[in-house]
Amino acid sequence: MNEALRPLTVLGGSVGLTLLLGWAADIVLRRLDERHHETPLWGLLRRCRVPLQVVLLTALLRGSYRQTHGAFIAHNDNRIGQLLSLVLIAAGAWLLIRIASAAVESSYARYASATRDPMRVRRVRTQVLLIMRIVTAVVVVVAVAAMLLTFPDMRAIGTSMLASAGIIGIVAGVAAQSTLGNLFAGFQIAFGDMVRIGDTVVVDGEWGVIDEVTLTYLAVRTWDERRITMPVSYFTSKPFENWSRGGAQMTGTVFFQLDHSAPITLMRQKLLEILQGCEAWDGRAWSLAVTDTTPTSIEVRAVVTAKDADDIWTVRCAVREQLITWLADQHPYALPHVATAQAPAPHEDRFPHADGVPTPRLRRAGAQRETAPPDTGRG
Q1: What span, in angstroms and rounded, lies between the C-alpha atoms of 65 and 81?
Q2: What pLDDT does 217 receive?
């Protein structure tokens, strides 16, 4: 009976102690979160309750499973101990990632709430995401390495491979040259402030917004909701347009091809009226001028401003549409015209050739005169 109750006692005691410690930790974090409203750290740390309980339960079982004195436990002592060690390492890595994520997100939330500059917020957000991915990758690699070291055969193989580690490193470096290049390019983008999440960019002729940044690729969301995935090395090796660099505000142009008689002064007044009624215009600047002329038309350029790329597109479309409609209704003569005229008769139909030979039309007229009856003058 004691042999049957001992495993249940060890297991039940470990589970009960784990639940008790997890509940106590959650109570402490909840009270700290209520007292410190200036930081969300303690509230974010409450998400670590599950991995903490797994770590506590696994550690308690790892230290007490031999106390059951069961035949099965004694026969499979090494396997059970190794399994609990693997679970403990994995749970510890899970807990460490959760703690790091809570600390990083808390720091970003405090910075975002205290900073009014959206460009700095986007830059810090990009750096925070990349730092979190780096921490996750490092923790996972270390955890996997620690799990492999729990196998005796792996330790022996690792010792025998140390002699050839230099050659293997060179081969791996050559084979992973592209991956390593993207990895270092990701660091350069994160801390060089080249591009940030939310920036408006033009890459390969495609206009879009940076939607996601990782250590190896960037995702660009285009205006038609497509996602273009590009390696980060592209942004460090090729030129691209960043419309959000140095400020999100933009200046746009609208061109019109009009007749020489277009009322430029009235167009300026109408442009100002249109901009004053457009919510997307930021009111910084505007202008309208004749920038070019041809024998048949003139080129009129309207300059408008807006706070970002989306609004500048809206303003340009509104100006183009309303000015064209106004010209068509009030000043149709200002729209470009295509000059047309009736084509003259061919040259040979009106004049004989230079050699004196009559043209076909003249020959037909002479033949008709020859066949006509003579005029006798009689009634």
Answers
A1: 8
A2: 78
167 phi, psi to nearest 5 deg: -65, -40
Using one digit for the tens of pLDDT, what is the confidence trace for 196-238? 788 888 888 788 888 887 777 788 888 788 888 888 777 777 7
> Any residues with CB less than 8 A from the CB of 369 and at least 6 apart, and which?
none
Specify whether the CB–CB gap between 301 and 288 falls below 8 A.
Answer: yes
Residue 263 DSSP class: -
Is residue 193 over pLDDT 90?
no
Place of tokens 């050699």: 355
Give CA–CA dist 347/367, Å, rounded: 22
Q: Exposed, middle or buried, 299 (CB in 10 Å: 0-12/13-18/19+)?
A: middle
**Two structure tokens written together for 245:** 């660099």
- pLDDT for 45 equals 78
**Rg, C-alpha atoms of the chain:** 41
DSSP string, 339-378: ---PPPPPHHHHS--TTSPPPHHHHHHHHHHHHSPP----
Q: How many CA atoms lie within 13 A of 15 on its CB side?
A: 6
Please name every residue paired with 200 in a beta bridge, in sequence order, or none if there are none.
209
Q: How many Cβ atoms are within 10 Å of 163's Cβ, its own excluded? A: 8
User: b vs e for 62-90, b when ≥16 Cβ sit within 10 Å of the residue's Cβ?
Assistant: beebeebebeebeeeeeebbeebbbbbbb
Would the pTM of this model clear 0.90, i.e. be above it?
no
Contact status, residue 301 vs residue 289, Cβ threshold 8 Å: yes
DSSP 55-90: HHHHHHHHHHGGGG--HHHHHTHHHHHHHHHHHHHH
Looking at residue 373, its amino acid is P
In degrees rounded to 5, what are phi and psi of residue 198?
Answer: 95, -5
Q: Tell me the one-letter amino acid at 45.
A: L
* Structure-token match 């990758």, residue found: 137
Of 258, 210, 248, the C-alpha closest to 230 is 210
Q: Is residue 168 pLDDT above 60, yes or no?
A: no
What are the angstrom distances between the C-alpha of 42 and each of 22, 38, 267? Answer: 15, 10, 61
- What does the alpha-carbon distance between residue 48 and residue 99 come to, in Å, rounded to a whole number? 7
Q: Using alpha carbons, list the distances in angstroms from residue 216 to 175, 189, 191.
A: 16, 11, 15
Partners of 207 in the β-ladder = 202
